[in-house]
Amino acid sequence: MTFTCASIGARLALALTALLAAGTASAQAAWPAKPVRLVVGFSAGGPTDVVARAFADHAARALGQPFVVDNKPGANTILAAEAVASAPPDGYTLLLGATNHTMIPALYASRVKFDAVKSFAPVCTLAVSPTVLAVGPALPVKTLADFLQKVKAEPGARTYATPGSGSSGHFASAQFTRLTGTAMNHIPYKGAAQAVTDLIGGQVDSSFATLGSVLPQVQSGKLTALAVASPRRSPLLPDVPTFEEAGVKGYSADAWYGLLAPAGAPAAVLAALERVAQEFVRAPATVDKLRGMGMQAQGLCGAPFAAQLQREVRDYSQLARALDLKAE
What is the pLDDT of residues 163-218, one digit of tens each? Predict the structure, then answer.
């Protein structure tokens, strides 16, 4: 058989193309081939950080590479989200985000360098937690009615702590004051852990906090939970009424914690992360650990998670306009 130079060149080109394609497929199949960075927009010790570290441990065992938690607190998680949105979409930089991720457009749309939805590939939620109104020694009341009486008696004097301006706690607090016709002074922190510390120390009066961030302190008696912002009472706090039961109608606030990758991440990587996330939320050890922190394991993945993000961005933007809520 006779080969021309042209035919030999064509065959070599085809062989090289096949080799490169095989190499690319092999590289994707080998993910992760090095440590994965998991960025958290809050300081260590808060509920988002705790979920991140629990997932990181599980993912490291499942995938054979370290998942390193990188805390980047500040600017209402904008710094963390920006770091992930601008990272190479290769699966080696991920975001462990929370509900306030979808609140960013309502407050900072003209000031951020990313789109809270389009700049990310949603993988899965990992946990959810209701919001509870907790008070410390600076405001030693036992019921929501007593709390409202104190706050209304001193308009603008009483304080509430949140993990930051524009956080889920900030939105929950503003919605509460609107529903109840009260005025309080907002004290933003750089994460839930710092806010809870000052609440226990009496530097602030109250906090509309995720149950996961205050449950140990409530159970130990250091803080008092007055009401839970969910349709039903929490089995972890069976004696604490819902806001509906306590007289504030139509008030609810849940927080989610979830995994996101940069937009454009390879489908194979997203599929692997989703598989690990689903294993994580189904593991009995995870369910027990999260329940002990006032959370419920939940794995809403892919398109449904993306739809939730889009819906929340729309709803929170409308709420911010209605409440005239602005970043401080």
Answer: 877 778 888 998 899 899 999 999 998 888 899 999 999 999 999 998 988 999 99
Tell me which fold the domain 130-246 belongs to. Answer: D-Maltodextrin-Binding Protein; domain 2 (3.40.190)
Element of type H or E holding 44: none
CA distances from 267 to 29, 56, 123, 263, 270 (A): 11, 20, 11, 11, 5
The pLDDT, as a whole number, for residue 268 is 97
pLDDT band at 287 (very low <50, low <70, confident <90, very high): very high
Half-sphere exposure in the Cβ direction for 152 (13 Å, CA): 11
Fold match flag (36-128+255-323 vs 130-246):
yes
Work out the burial of residue 142: count CB atoms within 10 Å of its CB; fewer than 13 is exposed, 13-18 middle, 19 or more buried: exposed
Question: What are the structural domain ranges in the chain?
Answer: 36-128+255-323, 130-246
Checking DSSP bridges between strand 296-297 and strand 206-210, what pairing results, if any?
A: unpaired
Q: Which CATH superfamily is domain 36-128+255-323 in?
A: Bordetella uptake gene, domain 1 (3.40.190.150)
Do residues 96 and 40 lie in contact, with contact meaning Cβ atoms separated by under 8 Å? yes
**Are β-strands 159-162 and 254-262 bridged in parallel, bridged antiparallel, or unpaired?**
unpaired
Which residues are bridge partners to 122 per DSSP?
A: 260
The span from the CA of 141 to the CA of 135, in Å, is 8
State the pLDDT confidence band at 6, using cuts at 50, 70 and 90.
very low
How confident is residue 293, by pLDDT bands cut at 50, 70 and 90?
Answer: confident
Round to whole Å and give the CA distance between 3 and 236.
78
Contacts of 32 (CB under 8 A, 6+ apart): 63, 64, 65, 91, 92
Spatial distance between the Cα atoms of 137 and 47, rounded to a whole number of angstroms:
22
